[in-house]
Design brief:
The structure holds two protein chains of two kinds. Chain A is α+β, with helices and mostly antiparallel strands. Helix content of chain A is about 30%, strand content about 15%. Chain A has five helices and five strands. In chain B, the strands form eight sheets. A seven-stranded mixed β-sheet of chain B has the order 3-5-1-12-9-10-11, with helices on both faces. Chain B has a six-stranded mixed β-sheet with strand order 8-13-14-15-7-25, with helices on both faces. The longest helix of chain B has 28 residues. The chains are: A alpha+beta, B alpha+beta. The interface between A and B is large, with 55 and 54 residues.
């Protein structure tokens, strides 16, 4: 067992983990933050996407030990108190989800994309979420959601859709 | 009648906040005290006798709390069409990945270690992987005891390695071909494909002190699961409770029991709560994918384009156990004539056992396979006769008053109108002239499904409304159902809720599958809401000293029509009901199900049908093909969808876009690769379902003609959009480069090979 430190959504955690444990298992099983989903466990579907030091990772492919000392953001860290992040609001308004299982990962990948490039083209949007599989929506309403989020975030001074 | 304000409104889904916040709980998110983890030992062989199973060492491993094999279950075979299955293999295994034993342990690692300690002695038998081999008279029998298996429908015909054969015969096909000017004969093949829901199968089971088994599971068919669990566990149905959890995608994959009875038995044996989840490899090895098919199709036509005869033989590879094979074969016999007026028809379809994973339901079972065949051939005929593909379809398209070869009547048919809508939308007559670009059209025929549904609606003493129904939300249907109920009652959306579903408290529903939820349950709710409306208006009439007929409700307020200032909040009337008589304000109702009539003279074998009305989607694909690499670029996909009325346009178009993109995967990339019975996806061979980068512009055209038999004229939606996509794309590829691919998926390799072949 190894002791590791993780900053998840601004909160410090210290956990004892076996060397083979993945970041996803620590988030879901040890810390019981189940917003991050396990779809395939093979790094193919992107349902487990989280931010590690500002970059998207498939948390099922990251060993917990590799995440030692890193800053992690999960879907639970996106909304501020009662206020949804504009990406979340936009996915609601535009029907950018159906079964919802890929949605947390999809929203996290969208956040990284818009943080890096606040004004992506349609092709860049497609590329930005091409690591996140959705079987229900056919992606069309996810594209709509991201386009709307981009506009909402650009219109706000803090980049979060608020004043 | 209140003004229609909520019907047709694109309101966000009621489950939206939980889903975007990551707070919606799926089965795998449940963590209950003392919960064990269960794992399954699976067969490494495609066909073998089980000589012995020794679980002794596994049982002794510290941390292992229960081990089960077939002997822990009643000795019975089950199946919803042919009773040929056991939940764990008994005596024989018939596919790689078949469930043989299971373990519950304190953690996954211990459970996995215990699986390694179970010794199974097998004697290998000759496997069969090719359904055409399985049909040969001297082929080894995969189910030697097939004659003794029970059937759920007496009409099922089974023999040898055939678990069902269905046929449809109308007119005289020999005379039809004799009369024809030209005869077209083609063979088409379609692959086994996977639903590939993002959420894997998962279940949690607990045994209550009374002995009642409680199962948390994700399925659109909670009552079917309850009944199946009771049967397999040998318990009364009222000692099994299924709690229907959020479904992370199904498309048919979660219509049938997989883990649930095993998990329940492990919970009984260990006296602990047990959780089981399938990993991605198991999802493929032991899922229930769409059948692969081989379709021989022969069509006789006159020079003017009239189809006069059709013959077809379709072989569906159902894998090791029957599952839904007979229903798929039966549906295919109806589908293969298309929505075309053909006087002479003789078609048959077989579901054939092989030593591969059992195939079952995938969105529009038995629809996309024959549609790929007959709609591809329709364009072959059009080219052969020099007739425009849309003209040819219009010439043969069914209309009101026609009768399908099965005897089902056509009423309120919008096919011809939908073909014209498609032509107008894409400017068909001025096709793109770019090099290697093409347009392709295809139609489809599906139906609104009608199986039993019911609901109970309660208005409480504060005027709030609670709906109890067994109809699980897999498509956004809860949102549409709330819209229908709120509209009828004249209350705000926020005042209507659907209570969580379990089989003890919810009234029966057949399943949220088969293109039926909003249509069937929505109609029930509309009537229930109407009854409640009557009850509160009668009470309000006393309070307001007005005539019942003079009252109306809008936005939760009852008022006198013409003098709207004379009114009371609806909550006051509901409170009065409880003060005066103790309430309750309740209404219940049901949809009995039923199907269109068929002609028994025309049918042989199982005729599986739940169609209450036909629907006719039309799609047009616009592609560009690189003849050097075979790469297909899909520029635009237009979907004309026959919805009758979109109760919620976001939910409706979402269903259509999702179905179309699954159709794109079916057309161009998806295939389960099986080698000597071993499925190579997803480990080794990727399963190429569409990513965001594979999606073209999708133009959805909702045909809202109000002609459906559902609430507000709605028809079913869910399954139809996947049906015409593959042939539309195949036809567009032909239009672009003059190469006809008759085998799905249409990969770049196949296109390049066909170009080389045609250049010879």
């Amino acid at each position: 067992m190894k002791s590791i430190k993780l900053e998840i959504n601004g909160v410090q955690h210290e956990v004892e983990v076996a060397p083979w444990r993945t970041l996803l298992e620590v988030i879901r099983e040890e810390l019981q933050m189940t917003g991050t989903k396990e779809g395939c466990g093979l790094g193919e579907c992107g349902a487990c996407s989280v931010l590690m030091d500002g970059k998207t990772v498939n948390s099922c492919l990251v060993l917990a030990a590799e995440a030692n000392g890193k800053r992690i953001t999960t879907i639970e860290g996106l909304a501020q108190a009662e206020r949804l992040h504009p990406i979340q609001q936009s996915f609601i308004d535009n029907g950018g989800f159906q079964c919802g299982f890929c949605t947390p990962g999809m929203i996290m990948s969208t956040k990284v994309m818009l943080d890096d490039n606040p004004n992506p083209t349609d092709d860049e949007i497609k590329k930005g979420i091409s690591g996140n599989l959705c079987r229900c929506t056919g992606y069309a309403k996810i594209f709509d959601s991201i386009r709307a989020a981009k506009v909402a975030m650009a219109a706000s001074s803090d980049g979060r859709g608020g004043a | 009648m209140a003004k229609s304000s909520l019907i047709g409104k694109a309101i966000p889904r009621v489950d939206a906040p939980g889903k975007v916040l990551g707070k919606t709980e799926y089965v795998m998110d449940l963590k209950l005290p003392g919960m064990l983890e269960g794992r399954i030992l699976r067969s490494p062989l495609p066909h073998a006798e089980i000589l012995s199973i020794d679980t002794g060492r596994a049982e002794k491993l510290p941390g292992v709390k229960a081990v089960v094999t077939a002997v822990d279950f009643p000795d019975l075979r089950y199946g919803h069409l042919v009773e040929d299955q056991t939940i764990l293999a008994r005596d024989r295994v018939r596919y790689v990945g078949e469930r043989v034993a299971a373990v519950a342990a304190v953690d996954l690692e211990t459970a996995e270690e215990a699986l390694d300690l179970i010794r199974v002695e097998y004697r290998e038998l000759t496997p069969i992987f090719d359904p055409l081999e399985a049909l040969k008279p001297d082929a080894p029998r995969i189910h030697p005891e097939i004659d003794r298996y029970g059937v759920v429908f007496a009409s099922i015909i089974k023999y040898g390695n055939v678990c069902s054969i269905s046929s449809v015969k109308r007119g005289n096909v020999d005379e039809g071909f004799a009369q024809a000017d030209l005869i077209f004969e083609d063979t088409f093949t379609t692959p086994m494909v996977h639903q590939s829901c993002t959420e894997p199968h998962a279940v949690v089971a607990q045994v209550e002190p009374s002995g009642k088994v409680v199962v948390w599971t994700a399925t659109p068919a909670a009552f079917k699961f309850r009944d199946g669990l009771a049967e397999i566990l040998g318990m009364p149905t009222n000692m099994v409770k299924v709690i229907a959890c959020t479904v992370g995608g199904s498309f048919g994959a979660k219509n049938d029991l997989r883990l649930d009875p095993i998990c329940a038995r492990l919970a009984q044996k260990s006296r602990r709560i047990v959780r089981m989840t399938m990993d991605r490899e198991e999802e493929f090895a032991d899922g229930n994918p769409r059948h692969s098919s081989i379709i021989q199709l022969k069509t006789g036509v006159m020079r003017d384009g009239r189809i006069v005869a059709r013959w077809a033989r379709m072989v569906f590879d159902t894998g090791a156990y029957t599952e839904f094979g007979p229903a798929v074969a039966s549906e295919a016999t109806k589908q293969i004539s298309g929505p075309y007026r053909i006087p002479n028809v003789e078609v048959e379809a077989l579901a054939v056992y092989t030593n591969k994973v059992s195939c079952a339901c995938f969105r529009a079972h038995g629809g996309p396979e024959p549609t790929f065949a007959y709609e591809s051939q329709m364009d072959i005929i059009a080219a052969g006769l020099g007739i425009d593909p849309i003209e040819l379809r219009l010439k043969n398209a069914v209309a009101d008053g026609d009768i399908a070869p099965t005897g089902e009547p056509y009423r309120k048919v919008s096919l011809q109108a939908n073909l014209r809508r498609a032509a107008a939308h894409v400017n068909w007559d001025s096709k793109p002239q770019g090099k290697n670009r093409g347009l392709g059209i295809a139609v489809g025929q599906w139906h609104t499904g009608g199986r039993a549904a019911s609901a109970i609606v309660k208005m409480d003493e504060h005027g709030k409304v609670f709906i109890s129904t067994g109809c699980v939300d897999v498509t956004g249907s809860h949102t549409s159902l709330i819209q229908i109920t709120a509209e009828e009652l004249g209350v705000p959306l926020a005042d209507v809720q659907i209570v969580p579903i379990d089989t003890d408290s919810a009234p029966f529903d057949a399943s949220s599958s088969g293109t039926r939820s909003t249509h069937n349950v929505g109609g029930v709710l509309r009537r229930c809401a109407g009854q409640i409306r009557e009850q509160v208006l009668t009470l309000a009439a006393e309070i307001l000293e007005a005539r019942r007929d003079d009252l109306d409700i809008e936005d939760g307020r009852i008022f006198v029509k013409g003098t709207p200032e004379r009114g009371i909040p609806l909550a006051r009337a509901s409170r009065q009901a409880f003060r005066a008589s103790g309430g309750p304000i309740v209404a219940s109702g049901a949809y009995p199900g039923g199907a269109l009539p068929t002609d028994p003279q025309a049918l042989r074998g199982l005729c599986f049908g739940t169609a209450v009305e036909f629907i006719h989607p039309v799609q047009v694909a616009e592609v560009e093909v690189d003849p050097e690499t075979g790469q297909v670029t899909l520029h635009r996909l237009t979907a004309i969808e026959d919805v009758g009325k979109a109760i919620n346009p976001i939910c409706a178009t979402g269903q259509i876009e999702g179905g179309v993109v699954q159709g794109i995967g079916y057309a161009l990339s998806e295939e389960i690769v099986c080698q000597n019975g071993v499925i190579l996806n997803p480990c080794g061979v990727p399963y190429l379902q569409p990513t965001a980068r594979d999606v073209p512009q999708i133009d959805t055209v909702l045909v809202e003609d109000g002609q459906g038999s559902g609430p507000h004229g709605a028809k079913g939606i869910g399954e139809a959009p996947i049906i015409p996509t593959a042939p539309a794309i195949a036809n567009a590829i032909y239009d672009a480069i003059g190469v006809r691919i008759k085998s799905l998926p249409i990969t770049a390799e196949k296109i390049v090979a066909a170009i080389r072949e045609s250049a010879k």
